[in-house]
Amino acid sequence: MADPAEGGGSEQDDVSFLRTDDMVCLSCIAPLTKDANATERVCLAAEGFGNRMCFLESIASRDVPPDISVSVFVLEQALSVRALQEMVGSSNEESAAQSGHRTLLYGHAILLRHYHGNMYLSCLSTSSSNDKLAFDVGLQETAQGESCWWTIHPASKQRSEGEKVRVGDDLILVSVSSERYLHIGSGASVIASFQQTLWTVVPMSSGAVRQKTLGYVYGGDVVRLFHGHMDECLAIPEAGSENEFSCVMYETGAVCSHARSLWRLEH
């Protein structure tokens, strides 16, 4: 019998349900550090370069736009727990590579790859929290072992194990390796703890739609902007120059291969 979660599906599945290759943000409500009685909406985030620890990025400010790029994760794989155990137990962990776009089911284990840093959301072996039973959460370069796999569970009694995960559902993520919940720590930290946090999956881009429309650009894509049919591109001044942070101009020549002429589209 064919697996109902395998790729194919109808266009409605592309819109209503989460599938592998979708780009998402994980959002939750967290208490304000300055006022314990107030809350704000935040997103799970990571820099991906240098510091690999995950943190919470506020998206509630009306004056300062959030840097959503640090909060985008790709739903790279989804497996049943049994299939994951068989894969980890085998010598070839690459055997679980999938084709198509698999619809996520509650109870399945998922692999989340940080889009900006190209590393995997993982339960680390370190513990820097005041909660001595908790572990740090950060990014890991490879997807080997169970530390970067998380099982997905419904937060609402209206959903049950085995059902498709709908866009906008509140859900609970559990580390396969430590059997702890993905939880908000003190300040802006993120930990794997025995305490629960309800996360809302906010879709940024559908992997199925991206594959069907290769001629389009999307939020998060990096582009270089040229002026008409000329070889001049939009750039900022060189680092250390007098107008480094206050000037944008068109330039030609070697700048067309430099990072200062690259621009990222917001989501």
From TrEMBL:
Q: Which SMART domains match?
A: MIR (SM00472)
Q: Which InterPro entries match?
A: Ins145_P3_rcpt, MIR_dom_sf, MIR_motif, Ryan_recept, Ryanodine_IP3_receptor
This entry's Gene Ontology molecular function terms read: ryanodine-sensitive calcium-release channel activity
* Pfam families, sorted: Ins145_P3_rec, MIR
Q: Give residue ranges for domain MIR.
A: 101-155
Keywords, A to Z, come to: Repeat
Q: Which PANTHER family match?
A: B30.2/SPRY DOMAIN-CONTAINING PROTEIN, B30.2_SPRY DOMAIN-CONTAINING PROTEIN
The GO cellular component terms are:
calcium channel complex; sarcolemma; sarcoplasmic reticulum membrane; smooth endoplasmic reticulum; Z disc
Q: Which residues form a coiled coil?
A: none
Domain of life, source organism? Eukaryota
Sorted alphabetically, the Gene Ontology BP terms of this entry are: release of sequestered calcium ion into cytosol by sarcoplasmic reticulum; striated muscle contraction
Instruction: Give the protein name, as stated in the record.
Output: MIR domain-containing protein
